[in-house]
């Protein structure tokens, strides 16, 4: 009997221990080692994304923004210019565009111009008009212009490319043979121009600068009948010189010339 009592007492003591062990095994979550052994890896707290502050690129962009002129976006522009142009009507080819005996083909004179247009980031586009006055004639151009600008704070260098219509006028005063009606002579053609410039922004909407351009002039002149040329003939005009000029302008003429211009520019930006 004593042996039976001891056995029963030992069993009673072992049952709660087993129950406690079972509770620990099934009632508590498994350890990370058990999960990893089953094919799952718990997230490592050291692998979580952390913000370590702005990158070097972000810092450089922020510094550039602080140093920027604060002009903001620009959508429209308008500028006027004034300066001087050196032109040669027959720089590359000459085919009796004018009577070179009485009309100087190389000149230096004042020039005025204006342009306006749209701007998209670094690119500008719009028309430009220029008028240059010389002692023998006037030269005017109307071009379409495209520009590429590089903003560097308040300073902005740029390059331009343009092309369009060109024409000569005021040949009456250039005619050394006063007996000819030079109003009947028309000279026109095309031009191609390239340039560089620099703008300095005094305010977000106002700039001043300088512009240097070079261009090629392709000009033609249709012939005029002698009767139209001599309609304003004068008895004081030597007949030989008058006839020589009339023969030149009676035939078609052409030339390929060149010009160089330096101007100061005032601009408005919106």
Could you give the count of β-strands? 8
Main sheet strand line-up: 1-2-3-4-5-6-7-8
Residue fraction in strands: over 45%
How many domains in all? 1
Specify the number of helices: 5
Helix content: 10-25%
Examine the coordinates and then state which fold CATH places here, giving the name of the CATH topology. Answer: Porin
Key terms:
Porin; 8 strands; 270 residues; elongated; alpha+beta; eight-stranded antiparallel β-barrel
Structural account:
The structure is a single chain. By secondary structure, the protein is of the alpha+beta class. It has one domain (65-269): Porin, CATH 2.40.160. The protein has helices at residues 2-27, 32-37, 56-67, 226-229, 239-250; strands at 76-95, 106-120, 123-133, 138-149, 155-169, 187-203, 206-221, 253-269. It has an eight-stranded antiparallel barrel with strand order 1-2-3-4-5-6-7-8. The longest helix is centred in the N-terminal third of the chain and has 26 residues, at 2-27. The radius of gyration is 43 Å and the shape is elongated. The model is unreliable at 23-27 (pLDDT under 50).
Reconstruct the topology from this structure.
Blueprint: H1 2-27, H2 32-37, H3 56-67, E1 76-95, E2 106-120, E3 123-133, E4 138-149, E5 155-169, E6 187-203, E7 206-221, H4 226-229, H5 239-250, E8 253-269
Antiparallel strand pairs: 1-2, 1-8, 2-3, 3-4, 4-5, 5-6, 6-7, 7-8
């Amino acid at each position: 009997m004593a042996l039976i009592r001891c056995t029963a007492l030992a069993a009673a003591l072992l049952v709660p221990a087993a129950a406690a062990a079972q509770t620990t095994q099934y009632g508590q979550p498994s350890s990370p080692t058990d999960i990893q052994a089953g094919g799952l890896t718990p997230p490592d707290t050291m692998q979580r994304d952390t913000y370590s502050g702005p990158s070097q690129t972000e810092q450089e962009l922020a510094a550039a923004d602080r140093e920027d002129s604060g002009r903001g976006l620009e959508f429209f522009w308008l500028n006027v210019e004034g300066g001087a142009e050196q032109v040669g009507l027959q720089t590359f080819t000459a085919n009796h565009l004018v009577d070179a005996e009485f009309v100087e083909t190389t000149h230096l004179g004042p020039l005025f111009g204006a342009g306006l247009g749209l701007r998209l980031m670094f690119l500008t586009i719009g028309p430009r008009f220029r008028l240059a006055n010389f002692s023998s004639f006037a030269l005017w151009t109307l071009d379409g212009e495209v520009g590429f600008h590089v903003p560097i704070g308040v300073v902005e260098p740029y390059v331009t490319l343009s092309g369009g219509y060109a024409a000569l006028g005021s040949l009456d005063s250039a005619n050394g043979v006063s007996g000819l009606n030079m109003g009947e002579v028309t000279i026109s053609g095309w031009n191609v121009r390239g340039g560089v410039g620099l703008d300095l922004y005094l305010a977000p909407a106002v700039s001043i600068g300088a512009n240097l351009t070079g261009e090629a002039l392709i000009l033609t002149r249709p012939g005029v009948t002698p009767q139209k040329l001599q309609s304003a003939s004068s008895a004081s005009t030597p007949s030989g010189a008058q006839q020589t000029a009339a023969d030149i302008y009676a035939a078609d003429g052409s030339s390929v010339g060149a010009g160089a211009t330096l101007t100061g520019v005032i601009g408005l930006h919106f």
